[in-house]
Design a protein that fits this description.
The protein has five helices and four strands; from the N terminus they run H-H-H-H-H-E-E-E-E. It is an alpha+beta fold. Strands 1-2-3-4 form a four-stranded antiparallel β-sheet. Helix 2 (29-42) crosses helix 5. The protein is globular.
Length: 128
């Protein structure tokens, strides 16, 4: 009986520890952007919306057809994106990135804002 109680207590402790660590874990701006890219490439509008800054969400919804807007973004988003540098200044982060767009090399700057304790993609600026 004591052994069963001990196993139960340990299982509860592990479960609570995992919940607490998940609650306090914060993605880095780079990890947030990688998740955003995965959502864009796969056309996962639901996940993508959770990773966008509030202003971006409003702009997307103002387009009248968020689903097609998101799919269009997926077709235009550079491929083989690599994060070169991450610079965090308070609640704003800037990523220096490079990738391939329509067969050519391109570079970009991604701006993320911290909203309610989570990093959100606020702006993408790409150039050749």
């Amino acid at each position: 009986m004591k052994q069963r109680n001990l196993v139960f207590v340990l299982a509860v402790w592990v479960f609570v520890s995992l919940l607490v660590s998940a609650a306090f874990a914060q993605s880095s701006p780079s990890e947030t952007y990688k998740s955003y890219l995965e959502a864009v490439y796969s056309g996962d509008l639901v996940k993508g919306k959770t990773l966008l800054a509030e202003k971006c969400l409003k702009d997307m919804e103002a387009s009248g057809d968020a689903d097609n807007f998101f799919k269009m973004m997926g077709g235009m988003e550079p491929k083989e994106v690599q994060i070169i540098n991450e610079d965090v200044q308070g609640d704003t982060a800037s990523l220096e990135v490079k990738g391939k767009n329509f067969g050519g090399d391109c570079k970009g700057t991604i701006t993320l804002n911290k909203e309610n304790g989570e990093w959100k993609v606020a702006k993408e600026a790409w150039h050749n």
